[in-house]
Amino acid sequence: MATRATKTTDTTWLRPTGTPGGIGESAPRPDGTLKVTGEFAYSSDMWHEDMLWGRLLRAPLAHAEIVSLDTTEALALSGVHAVLTYEDLPAPVRHYGLEIQDTPVLARDRVRHHGEPVALVAADHPEIARRAAALIRVEYRELPVVTDESSATAPGAPVLHPDREDPHAPHVPHPNILHRQPVLRGDAEAAAARADVIVRGDYEFGMQDQAFLGPESGLAVPDEDGGVDLYVATQWLHSDLRQIAPVLGLPEERVRMTLAGVGGAFGGREDLSMQIHACLLALRTGRPVKMVYDRFESFFGHVHRHPARLHYEHGATRDGRLTHVRCRIVLDGGAYASTSAAVVGNAASLALGPYAVEDVALEALALYTNNPPCGAMRGFGAVQACFAYEAQMDKVAAELGLDPVEFRRINAMEQGTVMPTGQRVDSPAPVAELLRRVKARPLPPAEPWRSEGADGPDIRLLPGGLSNTTHGEGVVRGVGYAVGIKNVGFSEGFDDYSTARVRLEVLGGEPVATVHTAMAEVGQGGVTVHTQIARTELGVQRVALRPADTAIGSAGSTSASRQTYVTGGAVREACVQVRAEVLARGRRRFGDRHPAWSGPGLGLDGGKVVTAEGEVLAAVADILGEEAVEQEVEWRHRPTRPFDRHSGQGDGHVQYSFAAHRAVVDVDTELGLVRVVELACAQDVGKAMNPQAVVGQIQGGTVQGLGMALMEEILVDPATAQVRNPSFTDYLIPTILDTPELPVDVLELADPHAPYGLRGAGEAPTLSATPAVLAAVRAATGLALTRTPVRPEHLTGSG
Amino acid sequence: MRVNLVVNGRRQEADDVWEGESLLFLLRERLGLPGAKNACEQGECGSCTVRLDGVPVCACLVAAGQAEGREVLTVEGLAARHAGTPGAPTGAEEAARWRARPADSAAPLAPVQQAFLDAGAVQCGFCTPGLLVAADELLEREPSPSDADIREALSGNLCRCTGYEKIMDAVRLAAARQSEAG
Amino acid sequence: MEFLRPTSWSEALAAKAAHPEAVPLAGGTDVMVQLNFDHLRPAHLLDLGRVAELGTHERDGAQVRIGASVPYTTLIEELREELPALALAAHTVASPQIRNRGSVGGNLGTASPAGDAHPALLAAGAEVEAESVRGRRRIPIDDFYTGVKRNALAPDELIRAVRVDRATGPQQFAKVGTRNAMVIAVCAFSLALHPDRRSVRTGIGSAAPTPVRAGAAEDFLTAVLDEHRCWETGRPPPPSAAARFAQLCAEACRPIDDVRGTADYRRHAVAVLARRTLHWTWTSYGERARSTEGAA
Known about the structure:
The structure holds 3 protein chains of 3 kinds.
Chain A: H1 2-5, H2 32-37, E1 52-58, E2 64-70, H3 72-76, E3 80-84, E4 95-96, E5 103-104, E6 110-111, E7 117-123, H4 126-135, E8 137-142, H5 149-152, E9 177-185, H6 188-194, E10 197-205, E11 217-222, E12 228-232, H7 237-248, E13 255-259, H8 275-285, E14 289-292, H9 295-301, E15 304-305, E16 308-316, E17 322-332, H10 340-349, E18 359-367, E19 374-375, H11 382-400, H12 404-411, H13 431-440, E20 475-488, E21 497-507, E22 510-517, H14 526-538, E23 542-545, H15 563-590, E24 603-605, E25 608-610, E26 616-619, H16 620-624, E27 629-636, E28 655-668, E29 673-684, H17 691-710, E30 744-747, H18 764-781, E31 787-788, H19 792-796
Parallel strand pairs in A: 1-14, 10-31, 12-13, 15-19, 17-18, 22-23, 29-30
Antiparallel strand pairs in A: 1-7, 2-6, 2-8, 3-7, 4-5, 9-18, 10-16, 11-12, 11-14, 16-17, 20-28, 21-22, 21-27, 24-25, 25-26, 28-29
Helix pairs in contact in A: 7-8, 11-18, 12-13, 14-15, 17-18
Chain B: E1 3-7, E2 10-14, H1 23-30, E3 49-52, E4 55-58, E5 71-73, H2 78-83, H3 92-97, H4 111-119, H5 128-141, H6 147-153, H7 165-181
Parallel strand pairs in B: 1-5
Antiparallel strand pairs in B: 1-2, 3-4, 3-5
Helix pairs in contact in B: 4-5, 4-7
Chain C: E1 2-4, H1 9-18, E2 23-25, H2 31-36, E3 44-47, E4 57-60, E5 63-67, H3 72-78, H4 84-91, H5 96-99, H6 104-110, H7 117-124, E6 126-132, E7 135-140, E8 145-147, E9 150-151, E10 158-165, E11 171-176, E12 187-194, E13 199-205, H8 215-227, H9 230-233, H10 239-251, H11 263-295
Parallel strand pairs in C: 1-3, 2-3
Antiparallel strand pairs in C: 4-5, 5-10, 6-7, 6-10, 8-9, 11-12, 12-13
């Protein structure tokens, strides 16, 4: 396997052209120069003459009846142009949602979570809008809150959505359970009887925030015919459009959406935020309306990663083979559905981790509670499970007296392994190799804070950093490992496709390709990959990208590690069709001049049609003349199937992605402070389309996992369900001083079913980073640490 | 109130500024310079870093009125500053049309800007302007910073995409290039 | 809202006298957050940015007089020798950008129990120079903090400067946060040895409604150091005494549970920091004592 690792890809349908800037190269970002000069227009940078500022009034309570709502004073304020409530909604459709339309555009008579939208203001200046929002009189009658499984399913518990009509409603054991997915394979009961050791554990995973830096924002510009143009940062334009238009009472073609610059996403822009609200205000006032959340509001403006409680039971024989796994994963979906059902599907189908176990009995479920709504975040249901099963793997290994990496190797899945869902994995799954690679790395030197000749320690290299808490006292090193499995693309039978239009024309004597998709570039570098694919497939240097908008069909979401695969696949297919058309035209025009025209293996390179041997047959410019070639395609990956409602069986996923981490930490065991010294990753990406960009994805995902291990958590008061830390002062994400060296080992084992053999890469590193850091901290402290993020009080017994 | 200041070498004037406005709002919404970013508006992310009379500060925590008569450098002015082409004072109208680096200009990027591109330090890019201003100031002060120096100097600039490794690469690269050129 | 821009100290005092509710604005690192998030809408903002003398510092006998607007960066770069605890504390403040704007004067004006400068001021010994049109007075730091985010200033007073005793012995400052940079204190501790007076002083932050000194711990340690002739010999106090000192420091805390940490953890961490900073300062004192001995 190791020898295959450096080979690239199945090239049967790739005619490598050697065009500079093509796939496999670290081509520069097409938007890079604009981003470093400050000219790139993010959604919060939008500006329009005569524009108004929109603002939302949100509920201060997590569960309450709205007794009365009076906007008189707000409307009377000078500079206020509109104040809208539920009563002002223009269409019968007054709810939205990604899978289940249960989220009110504005609250009618009840709010179900802290920060729920209640009323809207448009004004001349943000300050006037703030003052007006403060003048809206809302009288609430507080209702009891449900905040966890026991309170949500207790007898007499308030039911969050009593009139559910969603597809899961008839099948759940309680109306406050949004969806439940069991996975049953083999006979776990019988297998447990064969186990020499059985290890059980209860784990808790806190609520993580995407904490993208660019706040929710955008600009809605009304047109003269009652339609609207919306410039917004999102992950999926067409999904937004499908939810926005009905609420505005407009056909989709009268709501034109264009992607504005996106300042990060990580799942948090999959649901709507200010889209409908800005459009409502623009249509009401007839003026362009800009809305920008501040950071406080942003914490209420998007869904978070589901907090979870997980119970696991692993059995193993003395020789280190897992006999069975039983587990139960309870995810808190909060007040509205968002993507919780799909998160449950992921949690259930990936609950076991990247291990081969035949006897499995597990279930995952999501609750409706009065906590903040939770939905998509990088790793999507696979993250919580990975934290727990990797803790379990260490625990079982310790019980058996085995090295934790060796124990994982013994049980590692591989190509051909059958998942607990019954799906046979039909492409490389180099789990053991990834672990071997991170383990084989030399360990970083001990006590990095000591340096020759220096007066004292470099505190920046100690736990506590600049805060000067230790000069080495109490510091213990720990090393930990983890590996994870994530699905790529949309699963469970979802029709996951993307649309791409590619045009090839001659401009100034040179062939130029133009690529148009609705793909949301959120920073991941999809736009770079599109230029690379066009160069490779069409042999051109110049590639132009049209702005992503709804003038073209859907590209699907920038999520699930799917865009390079799916929209990349669509762009490639469109290019292939364009190339075929160019060759057909060339044959018609010049076919009689050279026998090679009628043979196979022709390609485009350097603006020429060339034979497999490199002989030039014609210039593309001469073939096309004034006539452009344009092709639009909808491209799909292999279909998936839903999981059986009772057994969880089904070929639910299209591709799996794997990453492993080794964490090296220094822990101040007396103060419970941690410095991660190194966090090394090995990941199989199938094909590194852009090696620099894919390493950047892996490093970024890794550090989000590090944050989840040590500091990131939205704290919700269990008594009131109110968010306690909605700010960057108290929701901490890693700084550059918290972040260690991040060596990355990229494997390229082609998936024969995927374009170029690539494997979706964005999410897997977020899974294993967290449990690796926790394992290292456990190694340093000897503590069980069943909760993440781990806080200093957990490490010092002073919680 | 009225505020006069010099931004990227150009005299600017804004009227009807609300007294509670920040320098960040003034730059972004009144002067057409949205390069400094509005990620947290509480001094906890550094994405709005600009230089105020040469000193790196969070523009979100400077009241617009405090910038009266001061000189501000934003990311939009970085390339020109390194090219040694300070802008001439202009009227507000001309300033509004002014672009940091017009599309037809061959003006080179500042070393840190080019290094961020070359090292792959830009993903979503929202933190980039603040990091560039902070990193440029670091290299001006300390041409050969150690890794720990770089981390300390940039510890007020959050990035959520990159994991910082390629930002480290970029600053090292810019330092190396500047020392070669110097 | 009105934006007052005095260009001299006397103008600033006059403005504050005319508008006692005016909110002074210097580095903006506290006030602007309050403005940006709609937590504060004063009738008047009093910009002190044009009052040049607030930005200077000078030696004045046994004290350093630091203008109220002198940024933390200056303390780190220029006053590390004379005010080691304050310089260390300044280095833990937020981020470089904030340290370029924020000041001890601002920390005192806000008087948050989590302000990083307070423990160092308490340990070093300091006076706050307050002034109004009625005149100037010096408020001992021990009397300055009167409650959660409350201080001893009269409504018409502004902080002109803080006078900090120049160090006569080793000083330390340490702060616990859950991130290795840019973090608000979960708790903080400062210790200053005053060999000239053969005493020690402490300061604790974020572990009580106001910054506090651990008086009983100071008295205990001062007595132990005398009893064991530690000042003369440079030898450290016995480990049991260090442990008792740490315990007394923890007992001086009146912490709460909040999003940043638990009360129990704060007490625990203050004890650890007290023990460590005692070790660091005394090691440093011992080395100095021995080298002085060696030189003699």
